[in-house]
Amino acid sequence: MAPSKLTHISDLTPPSLERTWLTTPPPDPPHLRIYSLTNFTLLSTITGGHKRSVRTAAWKPHITGESVLATGSFDATVGIWRRWDSYGTTDTTPTTTNTTTTDASEDDHGDDSDEEWRFAVLLDGHDSEVKSISWSPSGLLLATCARDKSIWIWEDLDDGDNNFETVAVMQEHGGDVKCVSWHPVEECLASAGYDDTIRVWREDLDDWGQVACIKGHSGTVWFLDWEGVDTCPTTSSSTAAPQELSSQWRSQRSLSGPRLVSCSDDRTARIWRRVPKESANSALSSAQTGIPSIIRPSGTDEEWVEDSCLPHAHELAIYAVAWSRRTGIVASVGADGRIVLYEERFIAQEGGTVNSADADADAEAMDTSDDATPALLRTEWSIVAVVDGAHGIYEINHAAWAKRADRGSGGEEEEVLVTTADDGSVKVWGFQR
């Protein structure tokens, strides 16, 4: 394994006295100050609403003047919290951490900080603890999943009365649903769970349904994350991919869209890619079907294939993966207390040219067998950093990439990795290639 390039910057203080489950940075800082990613101190605490531990949380995107936070609890409910952004633009970027309990602490903005949070509404429908929640890219839809094997999709009616409408309830999973995650730009939802599968959902004629069931893991799939729309492999650990490679890569992947990374109890992390409809349909020629391709229906089913299995690095279950949408670096954490970072690179031949050999299968799938069309660019994933015992002897439950607000005055934003663990600590890590 590669030597560690992760540097421990700070712990968020004060730590929780109980297990921490998840950290979720807001989509468009500045927003609500929970923990500051400038000085790493607690700025406000939310209490009440739920009767049991808060398991998950997610910030609503694309709103101004107000912060909206959704929380999922072991009491089987989902809470919606609102707070006016009264601080304006400051030098603190927040992150929120879910714990069994939250301690009060000194507040930079006074003792009335907690009261500024308004408990807007409680969404009730699940029969058991809510494990994951996710807002759609538009911010109009909220997906929730639970131990009751169901996925609910709720629509925020945005009518000024905090009303939400149940849009769909999906129950195809055969066990506890561990994670839901929306596509970064499309209203396409991915889910994963105890039945070892990943499922993809889309709306068709006002009805949500499963369009793909991805099988490949041999254990519970704990977590999912999407690739950024603009991420691209590199040519080395320190050099960005040349413009021509980036353009060719994005052109070849444009029909597939962002990929999906998953992690599992089977100790693997895997990358999944959607096969473009045009490629899948090309396997059925007009001669085979008797129907001209321009009027032949494409159907709603999607084909997803394993793009790669990340190098083995964990000795126990992997609980979470985080795909940086700025650098393309993937982080994984789990029961062995280890943090691992992976980087995707173009495969180069001697002389520095990118290797497109052995791409016959991909070329056929992408319908690029024509000599005039370049073969699909090939990449490989490698481990670029490892930290053992990142939280001492404790399991790490979650990792998330976040931006620091006190850096990047010259236009470059510094990205940090935030990890949470069973000991109640939340640690912030810096990474340099």
Write structural notes for this entry:
By secondary structure, the protein is mainly β. It has a single domain (6-431), classed as Methylamine Dehydrogenase, Chain H, CATH 2.130.10.10. The chain is 6% helix and 41% strand. It has four helices and 27 strands. The strands form seven sheets. A four-stranded antiparallel β-sheet has the order 1-27-26-25, with no helix packed on it. It has a four-stranded antiparallel β-sheet with strand order 4-5-6-8, with no helix packed on it. Strand 13 (177-182) and strand 14 (188-193) form a beta hairpin. The longest helix has 11 residues, at 243-253. The radius of gyration is 22 Å and the shape is globular. Mean pLDDT is 79; it is low at 28-33, 87-94, 99-114, 280-298 and 356-373.
Characterize this entry briefly.
This protein is mostly beta strands and 433 residues long.
Task: Outline the secondary-structure elements.
Blueprint: E1 6-11, E2 20-24, E3 35-36, E4 54-59, E5 66-73, E6 77-84, E7 94-99, E8 118-124, E9 130-135, E10 141-146, E11 151-156, E12 164-170, E13 177-182, E14 188-193, E15 197-204, E16 207-215, E17 221-226, H1 243-253, E18 260-264, E19 269-275, H2 277-282, H3 286-289, E20 303-309, E21 318-323, E22 330-334, E23 339-346, H4 360-365, E24 379-387, E25 396-403, E26 415-421, E27 426-431
Antiparallel strand pairs: 1-27, 2-7, 3-7, 4-5, 5-6, 6-8, 9-10, 10-11, 11-12, 13-14, 14-15, 15-16, 17-18, 18-19, 19-20, 21-22, 22-23, 23-24, 25-26, 26-27
Instruction: Give the beta-strand count.
Output: 27
The main pleated sheet reads as: 4 strands, antiparallel
Instruction: Tell me the strand percentage band.
Output: 35-45%
> What is the helix tally?
4
Separation of the first and last Cα atoms: 15 Å
Identify the quaternary structure here. Answer: single chain
Q: What low-confidence regions span 5 or more consecutive residues with pLDDT below 50?
A: 28-33, 87-94, 99-114, 280-298, 356-373
Give me the CATH fold name. Methylamine Dehydrogenase, Chain H
Morphology: globular
CATH architecture: 7 Propeller
Class by helix and strand content? mainly beta
Rg, Å, rounded: 22 Å
Tally of domains: 1
